[in-house]
UniProtKB/TrEMBL annotation:
The organism's place on the tree of life at top rank: Bacteria
One Pfam family of this chain: NMT1
Keyword Signal: yes
Domain SsuA/THI5-like: 89-277
Range of residues in the leader sequence: 1-21
Species per Swiss-Prot/TrEMBL record: Streptomyces xanthochromogenes
Protein name: Nitrate ABC transporter, periplasmic protein
Signal among keywords: yes
Length: 448
C-alpha cells in the first residue's frame, strides 16, 4: 500500500513530532492499526545530474510504484516526503538529525556526509551513483561575459565565489594548485550559495564563479557568463550519488531496495528518452531544457548509471586530503562508507557503461529528437539556415560538451575545432602555429 504525501514547507516539517518527521517513523493507521512508514527523501532539484534519484524520479512516480508493490507484500502503508535543497550540506544536517532517510549529493558533500554521520553517531552509507563524468567536466569556473580574465593565472588576488565543501570548491582548489596559486592566499574566496554567487558575478562583486552542474551551463546559455576553466582539464572523476542513514537501511531494507529499483528505472527512462527527460526536468525546475540537455542528453556531460564504479570510489579516496586541508573533515574511511550490497540485492547488475566520445548534436525547434554529427564542421553546416533550439559541440581536448555558439572556435587549415575556454584554445594554437581563433559567425561561414 502507498499513500502519497507531499512535503510541507521545511519549517513546518521540522516542527512536526519526531515520529512523523523522521523517516522510518512508524505509526498506527487510522483505518485499523496497519503500520505506516514515512520515508523522507532529500534531493537537489537543480543539481540535475542527481535527477534519477530526485527530480525525474519524483515526477515519474517510480518510487511510489515500487512502494505500492512492497506494501501489498508486507501489509505496510508507505508515505514519501520529498524535500528539495540547493546543496548537499542541509541534506546532511537533516540526515544526521534523523529527519531525512535517503539523500543525493556530490562527491565532496558525500564525504562530509560520511564524516558527520560518524561523528554524530548517525552513520550513513553510499549505496549508488546518479550521474558522473570520468574527467571532472561537471564543474566549471565562469566569469562575466565582458571579463578580461582569460585563464586561471589571471585569478591571482581576485574574488572567486564558490560553495565551500562542494565538488565545485574541490575543483577550484585543485585547479589553482595546478596553476601554482595558493588556494588559501592566492585568491579571495567567497563562500556563497550558487544563486548568491551568480548574483555576485552579475553585480561585479565576484570576479569568477566556481560551481557545479547546472549553474555554469545555465549562466552561459543565458549570456551571463563565459567559461574560464573546464573541470575536465583535471582529468579526475566527479560524480553525485545516493546516501542512506544506516539505521534506516537496516530497519527498512525493502524500502531501500524499492528506491534503488526505482532509480534504475528512472535511469533507463533517461537513457531511452533523453529529450523527454530533459523537458520533464525543465518543467519541474524552471531550468531551460536546453541547459538540462547539455548535461543529461544523449551526448551530455554526465553519464548516468547507478553502479559504484571503481574509478569513482578511487576518486573519493583522492578527495579526502582536499577536504582535510580545508579543515572540513578530520578523515573519512571510504571503504566503510561505500556499501555495494543494497544495489546488488535490489537491481540487476548495473550496466557500468564506458562513456563513448561525445559527438556534436543539434536540437531543432519543434523536434522531439536530436541529430548527431561526425564532426564540428558537419554540425555547423547543418546549423546554417536551420531553426535551431540548441547546438552542442564537444571540446576538442577534454570532450566536455558545450553550446556551439558559446564555444571558442579555432580554424586549423580546413578543420574547425571547438573549445570550452579561451585557455584551451590558446594551448592548442601554441602547439599548432597555423591555427587561429575565429568567431562563431566566421566558423559557420568557413564550414559552408
Amino acid at each position: 500500500m502507498f499513500r502519497k504525501r507531499v512535503a510541507p514547507h521545511l519549517a513546518l516539517a521540522l516542527a512536526l513530532p519526531l515520529a512523523t518527521a523522521c523517516g522510518g517513523g512508524a505509526g498506527a493507521d487510522a483505518g485499523g492499526g496497519a503500520k505506516t512508514v514515512t520515508v523522507t527523501v532529500g534531493y537537489q532539484s537543480k543539481t540535475i545530474n542527481t535527477v534519477t534519484a530526485g527530480t525525474l524520479l519524483r515526477s515519474l512516480g517510480y518510487f511510489e510504484q515500487e512502494l505500492t508493490a512492497l506494501g501489498k507484500r508486507d501489509g505496510t502503508t508507505y508515505e514519501v516526503k520529498w524535500q528539495d535543497y540547493a546543496t548537499g550540506a542541509p541534506i546532511t544536517a537533516q540526515m544526521t538529525a534523523g529527519k531525512i532517510d535517503i539523500g543525493s549529493m556530490g562527491d565532496f558533500p558525500l564525504l562530509i556526509n560520511a564524516a558527520r554521520g560518524k561523528e554524530l553517531k548517525q552513520p550513513t552509507k553510499l549505496v549508488s551513483v546518479t550521474g558522473y563524468n570520468l574527467r571532472g567536466g561537471l564543474n566549471t569556473l565562469v566569469v562575466a561575459p565582458g571579463s578580461p580574465l582569460q585563464s586561471l593565472t589571471d585569478l591571482r588576488g581576485k574574488k572567486v565565489s564558490t560553495s565551500v565543501g562542494s565538488a565545485a570548491d574541490g575543483t577550484l582548489v585543485r585547479a589553482l594548485e595546478e596553476a601554482g596559486i595558493d588556494p588559501d592566499r592566492g585568491i579571495r574566496k567567497l563562500n556563497q550559495q550558487p544563486s548568491v554567487g551568480a548574483s555576485a558575478l552579475a553585480a561585479g562583486s565576484a570576479d569568477a564563479l566556481s560551481q557545479f552542474v547546472a549553474w555554469p551551463g545555465q549562466l552561459a546559455f543565458a549570456g551571463q557568463a563565459k567559461a574560464l576553466y573546464d573541470g575536465a582539464e583535471l582529468n579526475l572523476p566527479t560524480f553525485h550519488g545516493v546516501t542512506v542513514r544506516a539505521k534506516f537501511a537496516d530497519r527498512h531494507a525493502g524500502v531501500l531496495d524499492a528506491f534503488l529499483a526505482a532509480q534504475r528505472r528512472a535511469t533507463d527512462h533517461l537513457r531511452a528518452e533523453p529529450v523527454a527527460a530533459a523537458e520533464s526536468v525543465a518543467k519541474e525546475t524552471g531550468l531551460p531544457a536546453e541547459v538540462v540537455y547539455l548535461y543529461n542528453g544523449a551526448n551530455g556531460i554526465a553519464t548516468f548509471d547507478p553502479a559504484l564504479r571503481s574509478e569513482l570510489i578511487d576518486a573519493l579516496r583522492k578527495d579526502v586530503p582536499v577536504l582535510k586541508a580545508e579543515k572540513l573533515v578530520s578523515g573519512v574511511d571510504v571503504d566503510a562508507f561505500v556499501d555495494p550490497a543494497p544495489l546488488k540485492r535490489a537491481v540487476r547488475a548495473p550496466d557500468c557503461p564506458r562513456p563513448p566520445a561525445a559527438r556534436p548534436e543539434l536540437w531543432l525547434k519543434g523536434q522531439e529528437t536530436t541529430r548527431s554529427f561526425a564532426s564540428p564542421k558537419e554540425l555547423l553546416k547543418a546549423v546554417k539556415g536551420a531553426d535551431v533550439r540548441a547546438a552542442y559541440v564537444p571540446d576538442a581536448v577534454t570532450g566536455t560538451l558545450w553550446f556551439a555558439d558559446r564555444a571558442v572556435w579555432v580554424a586549423d587549415g580546413a578543420d574547425l575545432r571547438a573549445f570550452v575556454t579561451p585557455a584551451g584554445a590558446h594551448a592548442y594554437i601554441v602547439r599548432h602555429p597555423a591555427a587561429r581563433t575565429v568567431s562563431y559567425a566566421d566558423a559557420l561561414r568557413l564550414a559552408s
